[in-house]
Amino acid sequence: MPLPPNLDEDKLSETALAMLGLTAFTSHHITRVWKGMDWDLLGLLFQKGWIENPVGKSKSVVLTEAGERLAPELLMRHFARESPDGGRTV
């Protein structure tokens, strides 16, 4: 399904990377995530340089260094609850 044209692609990309980061695993010094997301959405993440090219038979995709660094940051930014002292917690 093509992505609807009226979506905020930046917010969507950040949320998708944060969610993919939850499935991250490292093998042979390469961090991979399961690519069970819409192909157009994976294409956005590839365009942003957060994942390597998702096209292929593999069921996982490699996170770039930027994607590996950003995934946990975006998870906290978009999904962490605020603690009573004003900080963020998961």
Indicate the CATH architecture: Orthogonal Bundle
Q: How many domains make up the 3D coordinates?
A: 1
Question: Per DSSP, what share of the residues sits in E-state strands of 2 or more residues?
Answer: 15-25%
pLDDT < 50 stretches: none
Q: Profile the largest sheet.
A: 3 strands, antiparallel
Query: Which class best fits the helix and strand makeup?
Result: alpha+beta
* Overall radius of gyration: 14 Å
Please bin the fraction of helical residues.
40-55%
- The side-by-side strand order for the widest beta sheet comes to 1-2-3
Shape: globular
Instruction: Give a count of the beta strands, DSSP E runs of length 2 or more.
Output: 5
Mean pLDDT: 88
Q: State the CATH topology.
A: Arc Repressor Mutant, subunit A
How many distinct helices?
3
CATH class: Mainly Alpha
Walk me through what this model shows.
- The protein is an alpha+beta fold and 90 residues long.
- The protein has one domain: Winged helix-like DNA-binding domain superfamily/Winged helix DNA-binding domain (Arc Repressor Mutant, subunit A), CATH 1.10.10.10.
- It is built from three helices and five strands; from the N terminus they run αββαβαββ.
- Strands 1-2-3 form a three-stranded antiparallel beta sheet, with no helix packed on it. The protein has a two-stranded antiparallel ribbon with strand order 4-5.
- β1 and β2 form a beta hairpin.
- α1 packs across α2.
- The mean pLDDT is 88.
